[in-house]
Specification:
This protein has about 210 residues and is α+β, with helices and mostly antiparallel strands. It has helices at about 1-10, 65-75, 85-90, 110-125, 140-150, 155-160, 165, 175-185, and strands spanning about 25, 30-35, 45, 55-65, 75-80, 100-105, 130-135, 170-175, 195-200.
Length: about 210
């Protein structure tokens, strides 16, 4: 159900992309069962074990390892918004060919905090050197204002997060190692208000943002 939606969003890029319809995880997970709500909303699907009650339909899903998918598709940018699981995937990532990693961040618990530090340490080992960080809840308000001003929703989405002229007060640039040190020193998930992180490998690419 989501594939037509993805294809429509990617249409402006004139075939410079491919859609890979795979469930992705880390090594050791080969398949799982998902409970699809009766409403059919896939973004509300949840894992279900044998014998558990599912108020909807159960679908069996084959799972691909993140590194196998990256090796096959060879993306330039890896974009993840997985409600906290992005940290687990980033910890397992092995590829040095990806130029950018774009994360919707979730650091709302001690477990997510620990996973975030480990994931960013792995990104540093893979050669990522800088992080553009959107801080604070106010970027959502900026997004709402820009959507009303810009006819292209995708352009508005990008502007709200990364356009220096409109959102410079929300964006901070860190060397990745400094960001890791900052997270370690704060060590308090309740005070970390990062909403979005873009990891950059080549310092020359900072000029693009």
């Amino acid at each position: 159900a989501l594939i037509p939606f993805l294809r429509a969003n990617l249409k402006p890029y004139n075939g410079r992309n491919i859609v890979v319809n795979k469930a992705v995880s880390v090594k050791g997970f080969n398949s799982m069962s998902l409970c699809i709500p009766a409403t059919g909303e896939l973004n509300h699907a949840k894992p279900v074990n044998e014998g558990e009650v599912c108020e909807g339909s159960v679908e069996h899903v084959e799972i691909a390892d993140i590194n196998d998918v990256v090796e096959s598709a060879k993306p330039d940018l890896l974009r993840m918004d997985l409600e906290g699981f992005e940290w687990t995937l980033l910890q397992a990532l092995e590829s040095r060919s990806i130029e950018f990693i774009d994360l919707e961040t979730h650091i709302g618990s001690e477990r997510e905090y620990v996973n975030a530090v480990k994931a960013l340490e792995n990104a540093s080992r893979l050669g990522f050197r800088y992080a553009l960080v959107v801080e604070g809840i106010h970027w959502f308000n900026s997004l709402a204002k820009l959507v009303s001003q810009v006819s292209d929703p995708f352009k508005a989405f990008c502007l709200a997060k990364f356009a220096k002229a409109r959102c410079s007060d929300l964006i901070k640039v860190y060397s990745l190692n400094n960001l890791i040190s900052k997270l370690r020193s704060e060590h308090n998930p309740a005070t970390i208000d990062y909403k979005h992180v873009l990891l950059i490998r080549d310092p020359a690419d900072l000029n693009a943002w």
